[in-house]
Amino acid sequence: SNSSPSQSPTPPAPSTSSQSPTTKAPSTSPSQSPSCSNEVDFDICFALDMSGSVCSKNSPIACSDSCSPSDECRDFTVPRDTCCENFRSIQDFTIDMVTELDSFNGDKSYSIVQFASSGSLVQSSGDKDSTIDSVNGLVYTGARTNHAEAIDSCRNALSGTDHNKYMILITDGVSTLPQPGPINSTFASADLAKGDDINIIPVFITTTSSGGLQVMSTISSDGKVFNVTDFGSLEAIEQELIEQVTAPSTSHCSSPSQSPTPPAPSTPSPSRGPSQSPSAMPSASPSKSPSQSPTNKIEPIPSQSPSTKAPSTSPSQSP
Prior knowledge:
Radius of gyration: 33 Å
Largest sheet: 6 strands, mixed
Number of strands: 6
Distance between the termini: 18 Å
């Protein structure tokens, strides 16, 4: 009968070990669900530069009329509608972004604007598949660069939504239209877009000169420009750009990641507390039954199971 009370307090010890693995589960789940996918609601407009400088091999004013002259503009590794590898890189970059962003659950849509001498809306508020089709179907135009119309077209596409709104402007040059004052027109259009709570994120390819970098920084909502030195390097900024777009939603996830971390420090407390709390419960039952019969044998019992220090204190209180 004396061994039975010593066995009853020992089970709580293994129960504490069963508690510690359960604390590991919350620590793993926040790492899996920091995407907080159900909170990622956004609408994005991609503005894709089709101006002559994108495909021009030498002079930035070449390729002023579609993909001609061929010797100056055309890469025969891509279809004629695509014209050159540089524009194919812009298409691939956009498709990669849409595909990756679409892996987040939630309400989202994608709009596509093409621009050169003018800007035009190709697709408004489409899903992933329709967006990819639209991007693959773009026909390179060549000509000049009108950032103001590109921004205006995206602004119209993003009107009337209460989601987080983003405009990703992908370009390689400075504004040359409208005249006069193409840069001031760009700034004015960007200010209107920002007034509509549109987050403008410029992606700038500095192939010709860095003169446009300051312009991009000015129209950027936070002053940041995703800058690469060649079209082939666009894929290198995809992940960072995706993180910026999803940051408002993942910030909500930082709170769950912080809440599961407290359980980790709470594990040492249960490990110390179980010796105190379980002793309270087992001491309640064993102290009543053993105290009635083996009152004279209480002293040898703690000597047999010194591991349970709490029961040794409780029986000393009852006698």
